[in-house]
């Protein structure tokens, strides 16, 4: 068997770049006191050498650094709450948080190596769909991963933070049933998304427990976006037996439902009751204010950061999946059925 190739060190990269080890270390840690041309050269050589930063030894204090908080889609009200909680926790712990959006066309291997080359101690991915290839490359790069609200749950053990989505979906539907609604539709996110499936199952469980059937066409899927609320609401309101209440899988979706209802001349909540999910800041600013299921989004960001740092330091964690409690917040968008 040929001997295994030696792992690249900072000295190896420094010699190739013609700079000091300290300069390479500054690039890895995201320091600003490095000339742009030098930084670009060092980052290129780090990738060429497949440099992987050594993990801290168990029991050693971890050096301060940065954690990547990465989204797969554009920043919205949901994302802002996650960012707020993560950044506040980072400030408390003395750890920098870098927020980014990962392009769908990025090569997996380069994506993982670039994060390591930039000096990231861990990656927090939000509502990401994880492939086996991505998990393999992150493992090879020895980059700890924590996922918030994963869209899928791969067979490999992945550390994740979520909320009690099933309980939230059940409570939201139960609230509408208690108001006398029986024609209740659900407009949610991707059909394959784990968080959407849990909310949908909660909705169906509440309907079944009440002995109320879910009529054909009453379940619509999308991407938790405003446009999904618009198109989903049009679809269900065009049915022969239109719903008197709609449970939306996110606040943003609920706002789309509101707009579709207004376009038809429907009054909220007199003609149509609406419940959202998330309790973002804009839920209180809606007209009328939105009844919604509160996810502790800031706390989810904080817990994700603390968990990622523990994994990066080689410390044991209590559970590979943590669910924080949801809570129904009743406002002005729901009322008794007419």
UniProtKB/TrEMBL annotation:
Top-level taxon of origin: Bacteria
Transcription regulation as UniProt keyword: yes
Tagged with keyword Repeat: no
Record domain HTH lacI-type: where: 8-62
Entry GO MF terms: DNA-binding transcription factor activity; transcription cis-regulatory region binding
InterPro entries listed in its UniProt record: HTH_LacI (IPR000843), LacI/GalR-like_sensor (IPR046335), Lambda_DNA-bd_dom_sf (IPR010982), Peripla_BP_I (IPR028082)
Keywords: DNA-binding, Transcription, Transcription regulation
PANTHER family xrefs: LACI-RELATED TRANSCRIPTIONAL REPRESSOR (PTHR30146), LACTOSE OPERON REPRESSOR (PTHR30146:SF153)
Name recorded for this polypeptide: Substrate-binding domain-containing protein
């Amino acid at each position: 068997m040929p001997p295994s190739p030696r792992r690249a060190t900072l000295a190896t990269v420094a010699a190739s770049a013609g700079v000091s080890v300290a300069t390479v270390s500054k690039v890895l840690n995201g320091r600003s006191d490095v000339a742009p041309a030098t930084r670009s050269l060092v980052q290129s050589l780090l990738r060429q050498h497949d440099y992987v930063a050594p993990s801290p030894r168990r029991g050693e204090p971890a050096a301060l650094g940065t954690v990547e908080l990465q989204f797969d889609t554009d920043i919205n009200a949901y994302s802002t709450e996650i960012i707020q909680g993560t950044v506040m926790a980072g400030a408390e712990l003395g750890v920098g948080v870098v927020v980014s959006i990962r392009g769908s066309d990025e090569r997996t291997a380069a994506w993982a190596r670039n994060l390591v080359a930039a000096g990231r101690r861990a990656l927090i991915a939000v509502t990401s769909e994880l492939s086996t290839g991505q998990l393999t490359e992150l493992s090879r790069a020895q980059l700890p991963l924590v996922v918030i609200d994963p869209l899928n749950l791969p067979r490999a053990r992945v550390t994740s933070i979520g909320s009690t989505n099933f309980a939230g979906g059940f409570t939201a539907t139960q609230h509408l049933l208690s108001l006398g609604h029986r024609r209740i539709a659900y407009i949610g996110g991707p059909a394959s998304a784990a968080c959407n499936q849990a909310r949908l199952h909660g909705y169906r469980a509440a309907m079944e427990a009440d002995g109320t059937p879910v009529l054909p066409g009453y379940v619509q899927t999308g991407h938790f976006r405003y446009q999904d609320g618009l198109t989903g609401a049009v679809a269900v309101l065009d049915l022969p037996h239109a719903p008197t209440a709609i449970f939306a899988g996110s606040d943003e979706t609920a706002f789309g439902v509101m707009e579709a209802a207004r376009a038809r001349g429907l009054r909220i909540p007199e003609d149509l009751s609406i419940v959202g999910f998330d309790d973002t800041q804009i839920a209180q600013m809606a007209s009328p204010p939105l009844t919604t299921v509160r996810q502790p989004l800031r706390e989810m960001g904080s817990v994700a950061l603390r968990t990622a740092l523990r994994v990066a330091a080689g410390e044991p964690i209590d559970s590979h999946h943590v669910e924080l409690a949801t809570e129904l917040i009743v406002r002005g968008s729901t009322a008794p059925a007419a």
